Here is the input.
Amino acid sequence: MKIGTKSVLFGAHQFLLHPLFVAWAWWRLFGLPFDPRLWVAFFVHDFGYLSRSDMDGAEGEEHALLGARLMHWLFDRPRYVLRDGAWIENTRWRDFTLYHSRFYAKRHGRPVSPLCMADKLAFVLTPRWLYLPMVRATGELAEYMQRQREREAAGERQFTRTEIADAEKRWHAEVCEFIERWVAEHKDGREDTWTPKIQHADGRAA
Here is the structure.
């Protein structure tokens, strides 16, 4: 089973738990989510991780496409709207879902959507005692911490279980702190200057 599928089934993007934390985050940021279309977006925005072989690599970064297509098919009606004297395709809910990904938005030169803010804050709201066992079980934590381990490993040194557990908790705390600052800075819709463009091993820029 690929890591993306495991993430949706019982990991960081578990198909029942994660949407509820996203809804809680939305409530804290923007008020109660009364629009049923929001709830559909909360549940489908990460479906694209299914069958992905990585979370943050070239495949994982395309995960936003599936949920965006579903939202477009379900809710972007009429298909075309008149704007500034021209008929253009209605992509309101597609873009709302597609640009919940900071890196996807950065790659295409688009602002992140409000769903991005709730999605990121959901990470902070998910208790560490729940989150870490889930991402250990799926293998996600190993990928998320890979760069940090490379910086700290100093060759082939083997870490004890206690050191690994401490590193995991430290990583989680640091990410939570960064996300809280990022959301506070960008929740009003200002340009995201914090998220870098990244270069994959295959040479493709993201």
Summary: The mean pLDDT is 87.
